[in-house]
Amino acid sequence: MNQGFENRSRFKKPPLLHGYTFRPEQARMAGCQSKLLSIRIEINNICNFRCKYCYHKDHEYEKDEIEFIVLQGIIDQAYDLGAGSVVISGGEPLLYPKFQELICFINNKKMIPVVLTNGLLVTNDVASYLYEKNVSVIAKLDSLRPSVQDYCAGLSGAYIEIQAGLHNLIQAGFTQLNNPELLRMGISVVCNRMNVDEVEEIWHFCRRHNIFPDIRILKPVGMAKKYLSNYYLDNESIKRCKTKMLTIDREHYGFDWLPYTPVFACSCFYPSCSLYVTVDGNVRPCPIVRFDENRSFFKNGLYPYNVFHRNLKDIYSSEIFCYARNVEKYLEGKCSDCLFLEECIGCRGNAYNIGIEQGLDPYQAFRMECLQCFK
Prior knowledge:
Order of helices and strands: EHEHEHEHEHHEEHEHHHEEHHHH
Strand content: 5-15%
Shape: globular
Structural class: alpha/beta
């Protein structure tokens, strides 16, 4: 797999999704300076899909949504910490009552709004509004086969609605290329045994239309543990899929990237430069590193890193979050002496969740080697 890495300089770096992904050097520098590049917030817990791999669990959250005035405060605090973008997730963000007001608030602060949507509510008017407000959008597309897409989404007819939403985004101008290094539209694919054979076709579609292919490997968290435990990919399947996409990028599009990173064609230094806030206000280093579910962090029965009870700056400066954004100093196993450490720290979510299941404490779990890496 290392063959050809000595010639990487003759290729271009693949484009990023504006406000959502960052170069490794950007993320590392932000971590060293204790500066945020972005913050991701679950603004609601209401959704019109029932995705089989959703990070949420049945009856997990107490709140349906975060009040708009509270959201403004969180974003203000993130802005003061250096964040240049706000990633809006849910639930389905477009169901939030003050969604447009939220977009305007972020836009007025000269921050980049990034919306993660299933596409069901992306009408022509919505797509045009998002385009005019400088929003980056990631829409869902798990399969080109209606039966598979509907099953993954947990909703009959989801495939038709998703295709309509994607069409509306493209018609609104999201695939027009103003900056070849920064795209404004992404397609989210949760890669598993049901759809791994479709990734190549989706990849070509994305590259030809200036769309960021946000392909993630199905992980054993949330609803996936209940519904999709038979559909996880083994490391050999992950290797075949990633190396195939890398070959396609080199041969057809002139891009080169490290195939060992958790996200296809993109490094993931999320804990180094970002924070994740749940609809209950709990703060995590990334969506699937659930410190808020580990009782060892609790004080007086409460998770202390919560934006409803504590300033975001104080949370970001706390011991565990300092440790998280500097985890590359403490990595163990094959991650500790990896030749590509400047480009990849493995999937900390994969490491953490497996480590916790093995009985490790949160610090040990967070720094253990990423077992999903096939290097």
